[in-house]
Structure formats: structure tokens, C-alpha cells
Amino acid sequence: MASDDEADSKYNQEYENQNGKCGIIFLIDARRSMFSKSSTDLANEELTKFNTAIKCCRTVLMNKIIAKQKDLVGVVLFGTDKFDPETSTTHLTSLMKLSYPNSESIKQMDTILSDSDALELQRTYGSSDGFSLADALWYCSLLFTQRKIHFEEKRILLFTDDSDPHYSDTHQAHKARKKASDLNQLKISLEILPMGTEFEYSKFYKELVEITNGSSDTELDSTSRLEELLERVNRLDFRTRRYAKLKWNLGKGVALGISLYTLYREATVLAKEPLSRANNEPVRRIKQTFDQGTGELLLATDIVEFVSVAHEDIIFTSEDKEKLNKLTEPCLTLLGFKPLSSAKEGLHCGQASFAYPEESLVKGSRHLMKALVDQCLAKQRVALCCLTPRYRATTKYVYLVPSSETYDSAGNQLTPCGFHIIPLPFSNETREQKFEKSPQVDNETVEMARELVNKLKFRYKPSNFKNPKLQQFWTHLEALALEYQAPDIVEDQTLPDTDAQAVRLGSLATEFNNACSLSCASTSVSKRPAGVNTSSPAKRPKRTLPKLDIVEEIKSAIANQKVDKFTVVQLKEFLTFHNQTVTGLKKASLIEAVYKLKLV
Fold first, then answer.
1. For the chain, what is the mean pLDDT?
2. Same-domain pairing of 45 and 166
């Protein structure tokens, strides 16, 4: 039977998977200025602005295939000299209809990127300044409408290096603003990705984005670097998905609305899907229950569940089960406050989450949450609460650890204002563990260890470390799907930089090893050579006896409490001479074992 934490984690993942689809359309300017080389990629290769945008699309497509397979992506070019007979639109080219990312879409992007001749690419799609941005936005909205599915989010990402595309045509500019208003009614958001070095966002696009989204950034920095562009696209494409929305009852009728989010979840490879051996089509599993006596097919209403208590079966109907699942209403109830020091790491039991204010439940929740966070931080307190995130979920005691809002140098939010929800164990979930008493270490060794730790410190960020197992899986899958000759080499970012560590530590590592009697020699496991008869008993190695003068010296050192001056080899020989087990013992444990002999 799965544990409650596993069931809750599985439910959270299913909730996120069922929380609607996201549609994203890349609207790329294909006029002559976009084909000038003005940027470099991660390999310092010169790229045109158009190729930079296409490369950005390819990266997003790969990320969607890996992490968000239910999202839809489309690519549209504007400013071309093409004509679309289906929609009777001019100066528009649909590179990819709004569809699920697959290997064919990746190959299509690779084909465009493989053509390094900018003039040839420009001739392929043509270029025209007589385009209408309003028609381009209308065409993108049409692609969303043609898909008869429910979108949780619809977004257009516009790549261009032209600050004011209709500076000489006020009629076309007015049409674009009118179409932006239509996008607002259709709940389609518009984001601008300015390219190049000279882009004035406030000239035209600031007002356009304000009409579409209801708000806009005061200014946008233009860029031509691929890594900066990818960072912006990933930030725009990032979506927060809550797994619960409930009220936090503070007592005496005071409550605020909160949403719960899972900040971290283990990423796994794709689940295996059964296929038919005959035609390689997916197989749908159907579970049916039959009467063991008559073989008759049973319906869901014919089946009941029971629990045996005192040799008697207590039957639960579906109505009884439904009532049991609704014994507690989903809510967060405040029990009191405790010092921050009481929230020990050892009490963290289960998957943590994050509580953020939800204005749609209770108006004013953000201000009340901000006041609670500020006071908890000022007084170094954590809130002790009882949490039931939803029906059928396990009720738990939790700590709410306050988190203040922080920003980086670019003004991007690093941590939001809210509370980290830390699940606490019940009494029957705790265990008493007995460990051996740690050996005494001299102050010189402690100072040496402190210096070693300080020299090897670094700031940990999860985004800097990719799972090598997942990277290996996706790299081989990509090579197989796209028919590459060989997969790319995956760099294991979890391995330590031994060269940098050696430069930082210098001779400190050797001194510390000698002080703690640590062996740096690597032990290799050797296989039994072929043809060796394993049935014959292994010969016991002869026990080498220590010299008698060493035995007498150690005996006299025991009385003076100076056994630590002897080497590990000498101590092991001494203990072996007295029939003591020394396998796997460090010097501190060996010294303790010598004193326990009580030979004086």
C-alpha cells in the first residue's frame, strides 16, 4: 500500500497534468533587418537575429517535449512576401501550425538553422514592409480558435528589432491597437522580445502590450545574445500551478485565502506505454471484475468493500466511503506560534509546499499575509497549524516558516512573500536511534576541519545542476528520434571540480588526512581469476605479531594517556595481538579500543 505522502505527491502531479493546456505562438519578424548578423550563441558562433529567434523556438520545443507534452506550440513569420490562400492573408508564413511538439517540428527548425546563408534564407521567405501587424495578431488568434480545445493560457511571443513598425501609417497602427483590444477579450497575452541593440519599447509596443495584457513593463532591454533571450522566454513561459486553494482560519472569524504550490518535485523519465505487437499502436487497459463462482461480469455498483473487526465484516458502500472522505473540510487552521528555533530540520516529514495569498477567496489576503510574514520574521516565530489540503487528503500538523520577498540585481523576483509549509511527524512516525559516542578530537584538528570547510564553500543553486541520468536519457532519445549518428556528450555537473579544490586547499588536504589518519589510496575490487576452484577453503593469512618493545611502549602510554602518538598500523597490531577486531576502525576508534582493554 502506498504511503500518504506518496499518494499526496501522486495527486499533486495528476492535478497539475489535468490543469489545462497552454498554447504559445512565436510571431517572428522576417524582414531584411532581421537577417543581419549581430549575435552569438553559447559556442560563440555568429547568428542572425532571425536564426537566434528560430534557435530559441527550437529550445522551447525541446523543453515542451521533455516537461510539458500537453502544451501546443506554433511558429508564424510576418513581413514576408507570401500569400496564404486558406485565410486570404498576405505577408504571413506559417512555419508550424499550433500543434503538439514532435520530432518533425524539431527537424523543421534544424533545417532552417542548417542554412547559414542569410541571403538565401531571406529569398526563401521574401521580405516586405507592406505587412499589417493587425493581420499578424488576427492570424495568431485564429490559430487558437481553430483548435477546439480548452486553453488554460494563450500567449503570443513577438520577436522583432523594429521599435515602431507603422510609424508612417497611422491607420495600420490604429488597427493594431484595435486588434490588441480583441486579444484582451479573447484572453490572449502578448509579450515582446526586442532584438538588437537599439530598440525603444515605449514608442509603440508599450501601449500595445498595455491594451492586450492590462499592464506593461516600464521598459524592456533589447538583446541579441541567445542565452539572455532564452532566459527571458523561459521566464515568460514559466507557469505556477497550485494544487490546492483554501482558507487559512486565524480564529474568531478571521480568515485569509491561500493557494498551495509545490516548489520542488523529483523529475522522472517518461512512463512506459504498452503498444500492440501487431501494429505498434497504443493499447488501452480495461479492468473488469467477475464473480468467482458464476463467472458473471460485475458492475461497479455490485462491488462493496469491507473491514474485518473481531471476526466480523463491516461493509462500506460507495456512499459511506464518500462521507468518510469528507469528514474534514479542506482548510488550514492556526493553532499558535512557536520560536523559529523549534522548527528543526529533523522534524521535516514529507514533501513541503508553499502558501501564497489568494485574493479570489478573500479580498485583502495579500496585505494580511504580508503583515503576518513581517511580524513572524521580526519576532523570529513560526506558525503551528493543522492542514487538510483537499478532500481525501491526510490531515497533518505543519510548521509555517515565513519567507520574505527578494529580488536580484535585474529586478527579477527570487523569492516571493509567503510561508513554507513543513509537514511534521506524528508520535508513531518517530524513531529512537542509538549511536555510538563520538570520539574526542583535539582543537587543532577541529580548526583544520573548519578551515577546510570554509575553503570549499560555494553557493548552491538547483538550476546549476542537471540530473545526469535524465540528461543521458533525453540525449539518447533525441538522437534516436532525430536520426543523429551519435548522441551528444552529456556533462555530469554533479562531479566535483577536483582541480579547483586542489588549488583552494593546497597542502591543507594532506595535513587534514594525516591528522585524522585518513587513507587517500583508492581501493579497487578485484575479480576472482577464472579457473580457480572455489570449493577449497581459503588459506588464513598468518598473523604478524608486533614487536615486544612496541607492546610495552603502548602499555606504558596507556597509563600516561598518550596512546595517540602511535600510528594506525602499530595500534592495529597491538589490538590484533590481544584478539580484538580492528576491521574498518579509524584511529580515534582504535585509541578508544586500546583504553578499553584496561591492561594497566
1. 83
2. yes
How far is Cα 167 from Cα 204, in angstroms, rounded to an integer? Answer: 9
Determine phi and psi for 466, rounding to 5 degrees: -100, 145
Instruction: State pLDDT tens for residues 154-183.
Output: 999 999 988 889 888 889 999 999 999 999
Q: How far is CA 469 from CA 271, 474, 480, 490, in A?
A: 15, 9, 17, 9
Q: Say whether both 464 and 421 belong to one domain.
A: no
Domain boundary among 379, 404, 429: 429
Nearest Cα neighbor of 195 from 181, 205, 186 is: 205
Q: Which residue has the cell 588536504?
A: 509
295 lies in a domain? no
Same domain (yes/no): 250, 337: yes
58, part of any domain: yes
% of the chain surpassing 70 pLDDT: 86
Task: State pLDDT tens for residues 541-592.
Answer: 444 445 566 777 888 888 777 888 888 888 888 888 888 888 878 788 888 8
- 3-class state of residue 151 by DSSP: strand
**Three cell numbers, residue 568:** 594506525
CATH number of 195's domain: 3.40.50.410
Is 9 a domain residue?
no
Q: Does a structural domain hold residue 312?
A: no
Same domain? 501 vs 571: no
Number of alpha carbons in the 13 Å side-chain half-sphere of residue 57 = 33
The answer to whether residues 393 and 342 belong to one domain is: yes
Distance CA 568, CA 588 (A): 9
Ranked by mean pLDDT, the top range of 179-188, 482-491, 557-566 is: 179-188
Could you please report the per-residue DSSP string of 373-402? Answer: HHHHHHHTEEEEEEEE-STTPPPEEEEEEE
Query: Among 363, 396, 429, which residue terminates a domain?
Result: 429
- Other CB atoms closer than 10 Å to residue 279's CB: what's the count? 6
Domain interval for residue 399 = 242-266+326-429
Distance CA 587, CA 596 (A): 14
Helices (H), 68-169: 103-114, 118-125, 133-146
